[in-house]
Amino acid sequence: MNTATGYRWLVVPDDPAAEPSRELVGGKAWSLWRMRSLGLRVPPAFVVTTEACAAYFAVGALPDGLAAELEAGIRLLEAELGRTFGGAERPLLVSVRSGAAISMPGMMDTILNLGCNDIVEAALAAESGDPAFAAEVHRRFTGSYGRLVMGCTEELDDLPDTAAVLAAVAADDAGTVPSDPWAQLRAAVAAVFASSRSRRAIAYRKHYGIPDDLGTAVTVQAMVFGNLDDDSGTGVLFTRNPVDGTREPYGEYLPRGQGEDVVSGRVTPQPLTHLAGWNAAVHAELLAAAERLDTEGRDAQDIEFTVQHGELFLLQSRPAKRTARAAVRIAVALVDEGAITPADAVRRVTAEQVRALLRPEIAPGAADRAELLAHGVAASPGVATGLAVGTPEDAQHTPGAILVRRSTSPDDVQGMIAAAAVVTEQGGATSHAAVVSRALDTPCVVGCGAGTVDALLGRTVTVDATAGRVYTGEIATTAVDESEDDDLRRLCAWAEQQGAVTVAEPGAAAPEPVFDADKIPPEELREGPPDIPAGTRTVRGALFTTPDGVRAALDAGVEVIVAAHRLPVLLTAVAHREGTS
């Protein structure tokens, strides 16, 4: 029994003084509580807990009592808003959104506009005075429900109306979209639970070392409509630039759109300055809220918002996925701002991120005479050369491939993990391709325009995702110098203060005895790091710059590791000592 609410499976996160458990309600619902407790405008919601998800997988169905609690939760939303779920007047529609305790952007399902049927469409048309808006809401819901809940494999997003969507779902033998809103709700909650064990979610958790039994909470939230009229829209705002970490708002806005339009990459939104030009007051309110969330969270935030008829609503705030460069810059800046300590900064940057930052970049002048094949938005920096392929499966079976798509979806994640770079025809800097690539630290260029896929497929190309360009052939690169980057130098000094190990540059004096892994035949290292002789004080060799090698050296009591790049070794050592590696 959830004693805070009186429900077994539900939490209603509306008491500013009662912080809900993130493990119980998931990060998304926790952020709603946080924003509401700060006095920010958030559509009301309730949460089906992760315990209900675990029970769902245990019994293979919604657990006993959940259906009744879903109805009770809806009644609370109805009472707060003066609307009726499935009503012929002032109808209530809801979104059904996933939300694990650990953020996994785009990996699980969300169904918007739930509760729509013919009666509700007529009621929306009467209330808004816009039958086209009501029909669009109905069409969107039917397509989303048919694909995500019923498993329809047909392309539904571009069909002209609800009748066409229903016909496509039926033709695919997926069944019939229910008109009963309560049946819709129960099935949608089950579908979101099930999506936590989809192939894409499993691949994402495996890549990031997230427990596979994490499950998800489900947030049921009253809809606000960015597609209502010309005074409405939707967008995504990062409080700091997620590409380079600069302290400035970074985001996009889509007039007359819903949130799924922005993240899907099917539509290229406007820069955030468009919102400032359209409604300066809403833009100022958004930036003030963003600043407060950044300060309260002591970290860069990724904020989803909707404007409905000129009124701003915040839908989510979470720590922003960022590139390696941004992670370093933000961590150092937060120390300078007094938000975190140097020790905190060291914990917030991983060795993998620093290794990614030290990857090669296009050498000065090397691209001057190369043939430019495509250019777009630089969504995640870096350089990669490889064969351009068009499917996630090809990327998985072609080492070093460049994945080229019209736009990416959660079903492409395994291919994105395998690819050396990602290029898309459509989408902006907050699209699925951009956000996931930044999380993976994979070079990514989005919004290159129609025809890009045909122009690149089957060719060896070089993706300069720092500049947003794609060239034919292989282009010379150069590497970043760790010692010439002020942020990296400062992080290195702070990491050294943690005292996990000393890292010496090649050629520097080091205490004897020294164990050199480079002198061991490669075939003897296939099973991992070798046994380090007792009493060894210093180790050197490429093996001991890898995570496994650093951990082996520390476990053997080694005092000094010799490495050309010091910071990745220091960060690995700190994480290992603290038990987080």
UniProtKB/TrEMBL annotation:
GO molecular function, one term: pyruvate, phosphate dikinase activity
Organism superkingdom: Bacteria
Enzyme Commission code(s) on record: 2.7.9.1
Pfam families from the UniProt entry: PEP-utilizers, PPDK_N
UniProt xrefs under InterPro entries: ATP_grasp_subdomain_1, PEP-util_enz_mobile_dom, PEP_util_AS, Phosphohistidine_dom_sf, PPDK_AMP/ATP-bd, Pyruvate_phosphate_dikinase
Domain PEP-utilising enzyme mobile: 399-468
Keyword Transferase: yes
Keyword annotations of the record: Pyruvate, Transferase
Domain Pyruvate phosphate dikinase AMP/ATP-binding: 66-272
Protein name according to UniProt: Pyruvate, phosphate dikinase
